[in-house]
Design goal:
Pfam families: GerE, Response_reg. By secondary structure, the chain is of the alpha/beta class. It is built from 10 helices and 5 strands. The radius of gyration is 17 Å and the shape is globular.
Length: 210
């Protein structure tokens, strides 16, 4: 029996997934969460094999939660189920420890197949993600600027692009304001940008935020 946790801020999505998983004898939903913070608590208190997690959630997003979940539960498989296409986030998140990445428009059976693969301790790589991986290996120097950011820089970049202040970001990520400012300076240099509005424009143009 594969024990699953579902993390999504929409109750209707959690309900639909729970219902769909109940139709498969080897899957059992043992917990749910509606935010990144709740996901961290769920992993801490519940024995799970695979966490199926959305990215866009209020407060602490799936991106923010990923590193903390990895630290607390290194053996739990994490399947990102997102509304964003693979090319926007898959590579960054797989590098950060996600076990697989699926777009919410995928065939529902693909989610089940991914969960079964991940529960065996393997990564689930779709053809689209495999192509992105191959392309990145072919053009190592030609990677998009945001793909060259570290995990923390990427988190801070997305929050700045959404208009969050250094104080807000520091609180959410449990960092000091000074550390956030350091990350901001570093990511600006790496991306060759000079202002927060440049970051927002870049994120919108690359469909990293709505």
């Amino acid at each position: 029996m594969i024990k699953i946790g579902i993390v999504d801020d929409h109750a209707i999505v959690r309900s639909g997934l729970r219902q769909f998983f109940s139709e498969h004898v080897d899957l059992r939903v043992v917990g749910e969460a509606a935010s990144g913070r709740e996901a961290i608590e769920l992993v801490r208190t519940t024995e799970l094999d695979v966490l199926v997690m959305d990215l866009s959630m209020p407060g602490q997003s799936g991106i923010d939660a990923l590193a903390m979940i990895r630290a607390k539960a290194p053996d739990v498989g994490i399947l990102i189920l997102s509304g964003y296409p693979e090319e926007h986030y898959a590579m960054n998140l797989i590098r950060q420890g996600a076990s697989g990445y699926l777009n919410k428009e995928c065939d529902p059976m693909e989610i089940v197949n991914a969960i079964r693969t991940i529960s065996l301790g393997r990564r689930y790589i779709t053809p689209a993600v495999a192509e992105l991986l191959a392309r990145q290996l072919d053009r190592k120097d030609d990677a998009a600027p945001h793909e060259q950011l570290s995990e923390r820089e990427f988190q801070v970049f997305l929050k700045l692009a959404k208009g969050e202040t250094a104080g807000d970001i520091a609180k959410t990520l449990s960092l000091s304001v000074k550390t956030v400012s350091t990350y901001r300076t570093r990511l600006m240099e790496k991306m060759n940008l000079s202002s927060n509005s440049d970051l927002t424009y870049y994120a919108l143009k690359n469909k990293l935020i709505d």
